[in-house]
Amino acid sequence: MTEEAGLHxxxxxxxxxxTEAGMWQAFRNGSGYDLSSGDAVVDDPHGGHxxxxxxxxxxxxxxxxxxxxxxxxxxxxxALKLTGVRITGTLELAGGTVRPYVELCGCRFDxxxxxxxxxxxxxxxxxxxxxxxxxxRVQTEGDLHLxxxxxxxxxxxxxxxxxxxxxxxxxxxxxxxxxxxxxxDGLTVGQDLQAELLESHGELSLRGAHVGASLSLRGARLxxxxxxxxxxxxxxxxxxTLYLTPAGVGSTLLRxxxxxxxxxxxxxxxxxxxxxDDGRFGDAVDLERAGFVxxxxxxxxxxxxxxxxLRFLGDKPQHGKVVLSGARIVTLxxxxxxxxxxxxxxxGGFTYENLVPQGPFPLTRRLDWVAAATAxxxxxxxERLAAxxxxxxxxxxxxxxxxxxxxxxxETLPLTAKFLGYVQDWTxxxxxxxxxxxxxxxxxxxxxxxxxxxxxxxxxxxxxxPTWSPALFTLDLLLPVxxxxxxxxxxxxxxxxxxxxxxxxxxxxxxxxxxxxxTRLLRRN
Length: 525
Description:
By secondary structure, the chain is α/β, with parallel strands linked by helices. The protein folds into three domains: 25-103, no CATH class; 104-248 and 265-411; 430-523. Helix content is 27%, strand content 25%. It has eleven helices and 45 strands. The strands form seven sheets. Strands 1-3-6-10-14-18-22-26-30-36-39-41-43 form a 13-stranded parallel sheet. Helix 8 crosses helix 11 (495-522), helix 9 (435-452) packs across helix 10 and helix 9 (435-452) packs antiparallel against helix 11. The longest helix is centred in the C-terminal third of the chain and has 28 residues, at 495-522. The model is unreliable at 251-255 (pLDDT under 50).
């Protein structure tokens, strides 16, 4: 019988060490192979305590088992389940097909793990120390679990296809020489991508990734002092919700549940720019209590994002910008203290249909919010806010917003137009407070009546003139269209003639202002 035939019959190869022979037999039996000592300090795969030959296997032996291993024992299923094992050499499975179930717990790799274009059923690596995971275009039918693992030189999952869930909970990933900690451009995950309490030191890149359910970065800490972006995820598609929210620190993660009393909460923190441009999110983008620490040239970019709900409830960034240009939101849930200061908010083309403020958010603060987004006058943010308030039945607030828009516009006009704008504001508030017109008209009428009661007046014709009435004469001066039969029948001289001219001019100004305001109201602008 040849050596190859012997291997496929289950015989042990001649060059295996005793440790590898035990792994070989456990693989055929589908049972776990635990080489841990029971001492937490010694067994820490990330610590410096050396592991000797009694806990060491070669990577090529693992590859042999996974790619072309012996058959299972009768009534068993082959599986590689290792605990507390040191793997030397590079684990090279590129382009292979791995059918056995793989589970590695508390293991230590001396060299990188290479899995490009490899096909798996399910892979679970828990609390392992890995110099680097190279897994571009890897495919799994089930899960890829990497919780609590540490990667000294990053992870590459570009164009990978994960059948169900990808778990990176509590993983610690340092950047590779490219500057990226996790390179997962074009990644496809069938269900959830959970990276709760993740520590990323470098750029987390998810450009063009697609997640079939939710993407959770609850309690994650993304730090990239080396370049502009800590999270680079343009054209990201998440069928349900993106969570950049707190998580509970403990034996189990919260995953959105209310934490037990006394649980320590860790907020999502990002020290570096965030780019989510052109993202599509099926349910929501949740930024509740998220912390962003930017330099002056960094930003939270949500350009052209589309989602039914944006929960903008994080801490106010002290530096950098928040950009919502072109974003399309159905419901904006926000807090007054979450928005950046004037000049650091950009909302050109930002559309939303409902406003749901959390906590006090008076209209004056909302107007400051719009002003902060428009360093130069632009009517669109004011009109959008007014439309949303009107749709919610807040007609008075909508008029106040449009009045603020006109006042802001007036500041940009030439001197003459600015003066006329001030007159419109003082008289009828650009038509948004039409009750002022009656007040001004009454004041001018009363003042004119008192003045013209003392005026010397002569009839234009001695025959057929009406009885002199200062009240009707003043009203005839004020109303430029209506003829009450007084103006053309009496003649004034000197200063009284000039006073009549002033009253006529004031009447015309007031009438045109009222007409402009009425037109604006009829258009519901």
